[in-house]
Amino acid sequence: MAISSATKAATDALAVNRAPVSVGAQEVHRWLQSFTWDFEKNRTKYSTKYKMANDTKEQFKLIAKEYARMESVKDERQFGSLQDVLTRVDAGNRVHPKWNESMKVISNFLEVGEYNAIAATGMLWDSATAPEQKNGYLGQVLDEIRHTNQCGYVNYYFTKHGQDAAGHNDARRTRAIGPLWKGMKRVFSDGFISGDAVECSINLQLVGEACFTNPLIVAVTEWASANGDEMTPTVFLSIETDELRHMANGYQTIVSIANDEAASKYLNTDLNNAFWTQQKYFTPVLGMMFEYGSHFKVEPWVKTWNRWVYEDWGGIWIGRLGKYGVESPASLRDAKKDAYWAHHDLFMIAYALWPTGFFRLTLPTAEEAEWYEANYPGWYEMYGKVYEEWRARGCEDPNSGFLPLQWFAENNHPIYIDRVSQVPFCPSYCKGASTLRVLEFNGKKHSFSDQWGERMWLSEPERYECQNIFEQYEGRELSEVIAEGHGVRSDGFTLIAQPHTSKDGKLWTLDDLKKIGCVFADPLKSL
Amino acid sequence: MAKIHDNPNRDEWVKKIAGLTTLAAGVALLTDFRVKHLSPFKTDFSLELDGQWIECKIEEKVALLKHQEFNDKQFLNNCTCGTEAQKIADKVVAEMDACTDQYVAEKIHVNFRLANKPPIMPVNIFLDTDRLLGNKLMELRNTDYYALPLEELRKVRGVKVITLQ
Fold first, then answer.
1. What is the ipTM of this complex?
2. Would the CA dihedral through A423, A270, A117, B109 be positive or negative?
3. Do B123 and B58 lie in a common domain?
4. Of A266, A435, A454, the CB nearest to B165
5. Which residues constitute the domain of residue B102?
6. What is the pLDDT of residues A476-523, one digit of tens each?
7. What is the pTM of this model?
8. Which strand (E) or helix (H) includes residue A91?
9. Nearest CA of chain A to the CA of B68: how many Å?
C-alpha cells in the first residue's frame, strides 16, 4: 500500500534528523526546530510593511509538553489556593468595598486584552517564518488562552464568594453605554489585532506587555493586598510569570526585522504611535483605578509610572534595543506630563458619568483628600473643593435629584471624547495636558485632545471612525439608554453603577435618574 | 421614542432587503449603499448609527442569492458580476504597485473594498488582494511620517479647522 506524501516526508525527515536518544527538553527543542518548512514562497497572511527574518531565534525554547507540565503546576497552586484556603478564610468578604469595585473594571477589561492577545499572537505566528520564532509565539497563544480564563475566573470568584456581584458578572453587557469600554477596546482590541502585523506586535508585546504589564499586573497586586484582596495577587502574579515570555517575543520580533531596511523607515514611527495609543488610555485609567478605587494607598501613581514606564521601559528596555535602531518614543515626554494629573481629570469625569458604568465609584474621604494634597499639591483647589460641593448637593443620595454631570453643564465645562483614543476629556476644567482640537471632514466634526492623536487621525482617518456615546445617544434620556443598554441589576430597575459603596446608602434606580431628565447632547454640534 | 437597536430606519431597510429577488439587484443595492453610507469619504451621515447593521443584512441576502445563482466553480472564482475575480485583483494590485502617492493609494484601497468586499468577491481572493494593497498603502503612509507639520497635514487632508486651543 502506497504511503501518503505527508508520511513519506516525515519518514525522509526522520532519516536525516535522527530522533534524540535523551528526553532533555532543550535537545528535543533543537530536534523539533530542524523540521522546517520551505519558505521560498511563504508569505504573511496579514498586511505588514516589514519582512521577518527566517533564522530568528527565541529565548525560552520550550516544547509544548514541557510548557503544559509547567503551567499545570502553576494552575494547581493558583486554583488550589483560591478554592481551598482563600474560600475557608472568607477572603472575598475581606476586600475593601472600594477595591472590590476596582476589580470589576481591572479583571473584566484585562480579560478582553488577553482574549485579543490570543488572536494577536496567532496573527504573529502566521506572519513569522522562523520556526523558533513561531514556537515562541505558539507558547504565547497558549498563555493568552490561560490568562483569558484566569481573568474570567477572578470575576467569577468575586461574584460567587465576594460582595456586590453586579458588575463582576456579565459586565460586557454594558459595553454600549460605558465610555471606558471604547477606549479599552481601542488599546486592547484595535491596537493588538488591526493594521500592520508587526505594528500589532509593537502594541501588544513591546508596549502593552513590556511597558504596561508591570504597572498593571504587578503594581495591581500591591494595591490589592493593601486593600485586603488576596485573590488578585494569587492570580495576577501567576499571569505575570508568563509575561516574561511575551516580552522576549516582542524583543525577538524587533530582532527579526532589524536587518530589514523597512525597519529604519517605519519602526520608530510605529513605536511612537503604539506607545501613545497604549499610554493615552492606561496612564489615566490605571492611575484612577489604583488611587480612587482604593482606600489604603500604596504610593502615588506618578511614582509607579515614573519607575516602570519612564525609567525601566523608556530608558532600560528601549535602550537595549538601541543597537537595532529603536529610539525612545518622542511622545514619552508628553506622556510623563499626563502621568501627574490625567488620572485626576479622568476620575472627575468618570464620577460625573457614573450611571453609565458597571461599577460603583466613591468620592475621596477627608483622609484621602489629605493624601492627594500631600502627593499632588494643588489637588484640593482643583478637585477637592468640587467634590465637597457635589457631596453637599447630595450626589450620593437618590433623592437629591443631582448628578455631577449637571455641575459640568451649569459651569459651562463641556465634556468631549477624543476620536482616536476614545478617552473623555474636559479641556476647560483639567490640569492635565489635554487641549481641544476640533476638525471638520466631509461635514462631520471630530474632536482630539493632543497632537499625537490628531496626526494619527489625519494620516489614517478611516481607522478611527468609532462613534462616541454623545453621538450615539444624542437626544435620548439617560435612564432609557441605561435600561436599553442593560445597565440594571437583576431586579430590572436598580442601577449596576452607583455613586457610593456604602452598605447603608440607598441605591439609585432608573426612576431616580428619570426624574432628573438628563438628555444626551453632542458638544460638537454647538461649535 | 424608538429603541436604539430596534428603530424605523432598520425596519425600512429590512423590508427593502426582503424584496430583493435577483443577485444583480442585490449587488446593485449593496454597492450603492456602501458608497453612500459606509465610505470613509462619505458626505451623507444619515445612517451613521445603523449603517453597518443594514450593510450586514444586505450582505446576508446577497450571499443567499449568490448561492442560488452560482455553481461551485463560479463561487470560488467569480465576482457577483460574473467577471473572473483574479483579473480584477491583478488589475488593482498593478495599479497600486505603480502608485507613489499615499492619498491616491488610500483611494485605490478604499474603493477596492467598497466595490469588492465579500460576498461580492470570493473571500479567498479578496483577502489576499486586500493584504497586498494594505502592504503598499502602509509603506506609503509611514514613509516620512512626520515630514509635514500638523498645519500642512490638515491642509493636505482637506479638513476645516473648527477650533484649536
1. 0.95
2. positive
3. no
4. A435
5. 87-165
6. 999 999 999 999 999 999 999 999 999 999 999 999 999 999 999 999
7. 0.93
8. none
9. 30
